[in-house]
Design brief:
Structural class: mainly beta
Number of helices: 1
Largest sheet: 4 strands, antiparallel
Low-confidence stretches: none
Helix content: under 10%
Shape: globular
Length: 66
Protein backbone atom coordinates (compact mmCIF):
# COMPACT_ATOMS: atom_id res chain seq x y z
CA UNK A 1 0.00 0.00 0.00
CA UNK A 2 1.43 3.40 -0.97
CA UNK A 3 1.75 6.33 1.45
CA UNK A 4 -1.12 8.11 -0.34
CA UNK A 5 -3.36 5.05 0.08
CA UNK A 6 -2.52 4.92 3.81
CA UNK A 7 -3.14 8.63 4.44
CA UNK A 8 -6.49 9.50 6.00
CA UNK A 9 -6.04 13.27 6.15
CA UNK A 10 -3.80 16.30 6.40
CA UNK A 11 -3.19 19.17 8.84
CA UNK A 12 -1.83 22.71 8.45
CA UNK A 13 -0.37 24.85 11.27
CA UNK A 14 -2.13 28.21 11.68
CA UNK A 15 -1.81 31.13 14.09
CA UNK A 16 1.17 32.94 15.56
CA UNK A 17 3.30 32.71 18.67
CA UNK A 18 1.73 30.70 21.48
CA UNK A 19 -1.67 30.66 19.78
CA UNK A 20 -0.86 28.05 17.13
CA UNK A 21 -3.38 25.42 16.13
CA UNK A 22 -3.91 23.02 13.24
CA UNK A 23 -6.69 22.77 10.68
CA UNK A 24 -7.34 20.12 8.10
CA UNK A 25 -9.47 17.12 7.39
CA UNK A 26 -9.71 13.41 7.99
CA UNK A 27 -11.34 10.94 5.66
CA UNK A 28 -13.35 8.09 7.15
CA UNK A 29 -15.10 5.57 4.93
CA UNK A 30 -14.73 7.88 1.92
CA UNK A 31 -16.23 10.93 3.64
CA UNK A 32 -14.11 13.98 4.55
CA UNK A 33 -14.55 15.72 7.90
CA UNK A 34 -13.03 19.16 8.56
CA UNK A 35 -11.25 19.33 11.92
CA UNK A 36 -9.34 21.77 14.10
CA UNK A 37 -6.69 20.71 16.65
CA UNK A 38 -5.66 22.68 19.73
CA UNK A 39 -2.95 22.04 22.34
CA UNK A 40 -4.55 20.87 25.59
CA UNK A 41 -3.83 23.74 28.00
CA UNK A 42 -5.48 21.78 30.84
CA UNK A 43 -3.00 18.89 30.78
CA UNK A 44 -2.00 18.17 34.39
CA UNK A 45 -1.12 14.47 34.17
CA UNK A 46 0.57 12.18 31.66
CA UNK A 47 -2.73 10.39 31.03
CA UNK A 48 -4.32 13.65 29.79
CA UNK A 49 -4.10 14.18 26.00
CA UNK A 50 -1.53 16.60 24.55
CA UNK A 51 -3.95 17.83 21.88
CA UNK A 52 -7.75 17.98 21.46
CA UNK A 53 -9.50 17.43 18.11
CA UNK A 54 -12.77 19.17 17.30
CA UNK A 55 -15.12 19.15 14.32
CA UNK A 56 -14.49 22.42 12.48
CA UNK A 57 -17.39 24.81 12.03
CA UNK A 58 -17.75 26.78 8.84
CA UNK A 59 -16.61 30.38 9.39
CA UNK A 60 -19.21 33.09 8.89
CA UNK A 61 -18.46 35.88 6.48
CA UNK A 62 -17.92 39.25 8.18
CA UNK A 63 -21.04 40.82 6.63
CA UNK A 64 -23.37 37.96 7.56
CA UNK A 65 -25.68 38.41 10.53
CA UNK A 66 -25.12 36.07 13.48
Amino acid sequence: MSEKEQSIGALWVKGEGGKKFMTGNVEINGEKYPIVVFKNTYKNEDKHPDYRIYAARERQKQNEPF
